[in-house]
Design goal:
The protein is an alpha+beta fold. It has helices at residues 2-17, 76-85, 98-104, 135-144, 165-190; strands spanning 27-32, 39-42, 58-61, 91-95, 126-127, 150-153, 157-162.
Length: 195
């Protein structure tokens, strides 16, 4: 169990250091499979991901019952809905990375660039805004995740899922770099050549 929890802490430190989250934003979870059923380990609510300790990570069952001390992220229901719909997903990273979130607040979609698997759709899928932490957001994400590995949450942020937590972290980094590249391209293409 300690190894699973340490992985969440390490990913939290990594995405904070890479500016994919700031302040007390973002959340991370990992599915832990057991012979008596699966549980998830998730980051706590209202805590920075930059300095978490083992005892801060909260264990929750698939009915949302808290199994340890602490209060789970307000987005716990969104994580649970994804795990219930996607048995292949074992790690989730939710960020508010600046470039990708900028796109989430705009009317522009993020192109899916080469570098993270086969391009089956030209743009990253998105879901309409629902209040963060709400059951409506959880249901919307659960309904719309399909077989995608990324969802852009309009006016909110990004959620990345994968078969393992490290891969979900790498995907979150790649999504932000893709958004940055597209943003720079849009800026350059909008500048008229004065020469």
């Amino acid at each position: 169990m300690k190894k699973n929890i340490q992985e969440i802490i390490d990913v939290g430190n990594n995405i904070y250091a890479k500016n994919l989250v700031s302040g007390k934003s973002g959340n991370i979870s990992k599915r832990i499979r057991g012979s008596y059923g699966d549980i998830i380990a998730i980051t706590p609510t209202l805590r920075s991901l930059s300095n978490l300790k083992q005892e801060d990570i909260v264990l929750v069952d698939f009915d949302g019952n808290v199994l340890t001390k602490g209060k789970p992220s307000s987005e716990v229901n969104m994580h649970l809905e994804i795990y219930k719909k996607r048995h292949d997903v074992n790690g989730i990273v939710h960020t508010h990375s600046p470039y990708a979130t900028g796109f989430a607040f705009s009317d522009k979609d993020i192109k899916r660039l080469e570098g993270f698997g086969e391009i089956k759709k030209p743009y990253l899928p998105s879901v309409e805004y629902e209040k963060p932490g709400s059951i409506e957001l959880a249901n919307s994400v659960g309904t719309n995740i399909g077989d995608d590995d990324v969802l852009i949450l309009k006016n909110h942020g990004v959620i990345c899922v994968s078969e393992n937590l490290k891969e979900a972290e790498s995907l979150a980094v790649f999504v932000e770099e893709s958004a940055k590249t597209q943003f720079i391209t849009l800026c350059l293409n909008s500048v008229e050549d004065k020469i």
